[in-house]
Design a protein that fits this description.
The chain contains 20 helices and 16 strands. It is α/β, with parallel strands linked by helices and 517 residues long. Strand 3, helix 2 and strand 4 form a beta-alpha-beta unit. The protein is globular and about 85 Å long. The structure holds zinc ion.
Length: 517
């Protein structure tokens, strides 16, 4: 893959003077002390908060991408997010040149509520970027947002109903998924709205495939917008098909179809059902054929067959050959609400898929820093067809494609905390073939476990990242909080020299990892 710079149509305020030397890379520039790029991942818990410091025209250019931690994080974690905001304030002097908010989930925006006082008082934000899906003037964005809002409201009701019918496990799972939207209906939308307003009118709704964005203060960089796609079909495709990602088996592929189908049903119909008098979601029986649960329990027949313990010893567990007494498995009272868990998953995935995806290009070297938010399968797939055509200095067309940007990637912020559906394989990570690729995963597995998301991060994906990058993968929940600990964590397959070359570029504390390139 060539590292030659593509001539750009959009002329930066200051021309990059030297032609890149063949083989010029960020690492070489960094060694020469000429291109200090710093990427700081805060360690507040399960959520994204990044400070990226780029060499600008008039000193450091400060870019913040997202600022949040998942709902249910304890006070220590919330305090850590506040510490992160204070640290950003200290590092930048409050001058935030660009604030990017990838999507409307609490674990990406909670800071704009929890640390609003500091941000409001001390941050001076020059401009804010979000995805086109946040544009109130975009009809498709408005349609999708209205759908999601109705589904969220319906699910809040469904979670209560699940608890009422005794399906507390499911109720809790739906609640966990709704936590992405904050403690109460609208709280995440409010935090996002606050962030969007931080630069007044300097709010940009980024469009996939628009000409690369250049900023006068940042002549050596430009921004490609990869997603979210404008194609509704891809926008609704959250989960990868078999073979498109890591660690997928037939089971998960089957459930993928369920998630997608759940969203196909208009959310407003679901909402109407949830609020209807007979309060059923897909209830197969008309009201006159139903007996309320609490009444059934008091009737002898139902008590004998569905509620009380089975006394006649007529049932035996096939595996253990012990007699079965508990009859709760015979009841299907909460089963109709299974849909709500599926819908909750689909709703979260649909919101993740509205993530703004930015590829930040170092113009001199063509190298890419990839920040995909929590983009899921359909978002990733849409990058395959993206093309940017620009004229070079001789008036000849030069085409840059989505896959080419992936091939030039040297830093990858792993999508959706390392989930199964947010890093594609052949049309994603396997295309990132540059030597020296480094990844950061904003994940806290202990917290994910509390949320019952046991496969966050997905072990198969983490393994593949580590193999491809020889262990150059930093996680928020990494045990190391000092340089010595990080140095000692060298994978057996990585040479001491290579590990030293990597760790010497990392500043580490319990508050953040900072990578210099
Ligand atoms: Zn997230």
């Amino acid at each position: 893959m060539t590292t030659k710079r593509k001539a750009e149509k959009v002329t930066p305020a200051v021309e990059a003077t030297e032609k890149p030397a063949p083989g010029n890379t960020l690492a070489a520039a960094s060694a020469a002390g000429t291109t200090p790029i710093r990427i700081r991942m805060y360690r507040q818990g399960l959520g994204d908060c990044f400070l990226i410091i780029l060499p600008g025209m008039s000193g450091p250019f400060y870019l913040v991408i997202d600022c949040g931690v998942v709902l249910g994080t304890d006070q220590n974690g919330i305090q850590k997010l506040k510490d992160a905001v204070n640290d950003i304030t200290k590092e930048t002097g409050g001058k935030i040149d660009l604030l990017v908010v990838t999507h409307e989930h609490w674990d990406h925006v909670s800071g704009f509520s929890q640390a609003k006082d500091v941000i409001g008082e001390k941050w001076d934000v020059t401009q804010v970027w979000t995805a086109w899906t946040e544009d109130p003037k975009d009809p498709l964005a408005n349609k999708l947002r209205a759908e999601r809002q109705k589904a969220e409201e319906a699910l809040r009701v469904a979670a209560i109903r699940l608890n009422e019918v005794g399906a507390t496990d499911q109720g809790n799972r739906v609640d966990s998924l709704l936590d992405f939207f904050g403690a109460a209906s609208g709280s995440t939308a409010d935090a996002l709205a606050y962030a969007k307003g931080l630069a007044g009118k300097n709010l940009r709704f980024c469009q996939p495939g628009e000409p690369p964005i250049t900023l006068p203060d940042l002549p050596k960089f430009r921004f490609y917008v990869l997603g979210p796609p404008k194609d509704e079909r891809l926008l609704r495709k959250s989960d990868p098909a078999k073979g498109e990602a890591y660690g997928l088996d037939d089971g998960s592929t089957a459930s993928n179809a369920m998630f997608i189908n759940a969203l196909k049903r208009p959310a407003n119909a679901i909402a109407q059902d949830a609020f209807a008098e007979d309060a059923t979601l897909d209830n197969p029986f008309e009201g006159r054929f139903q007996i309320p649960l609490n009444r059934a329990q008091r009737l002898q027949f139902f008590d004998d067959h569905y509620f009380g313990g089975l006394k006649d010893g007529s049932l035996t567990d096939l595996k253990t050959t012990t007699k079965v007494h508990d009859q709760s498995w015979r009841r299907i009272d909460g089963t109709w609400l299974d849909t709500s868990e599926t819908l909750a998953l689909a709703l979260d995935a649909a919101t993740n898929n509205t993530s703004l995806v930015l590829a930040i290009e170092v113009i001199d070297t063509g190298e890419i820093l990839l920040f995909p938010g929590d983009a899921q399968a359909g978002n990733w797939l849409s990058w395959q067809d993206l093309k940017w055509t620009e004229e070079d200095t001789k008036g000849k067309d030069v085409v840059t494609t989505g896959p080419e940007l992936l091939a030039r990637t040297i830093f990858y912020k792993v999508g959706h905390h390392g989930s199964h559906n947010a890093t594609l394989s052949q049309k994603g990570l396997e295309l990132m073939t540059r030597d020296g690729l480094i990844a950061m995963i904003p994940v806290d597995h202990a917290m994910a476990l509390k949320k019952r998301w046991g496969k966050m991060p997905l072990p198969d994906l983490v393994d593949r990242l580590n193999t491809l990058m020889q262990g150059r993968v930093l996680r928020i929940d990494d045990a190391a909080t000092t340089s010595e600990e990080l140095e000692a964590a060298r994978p057996a397959t990585t040479s001491p020299q290579d590990w030293e070359a990597f760790t010497s570029r990392i500043a580490i504390s319990d508050l953040y990892f900072e990578l210099s390139i």
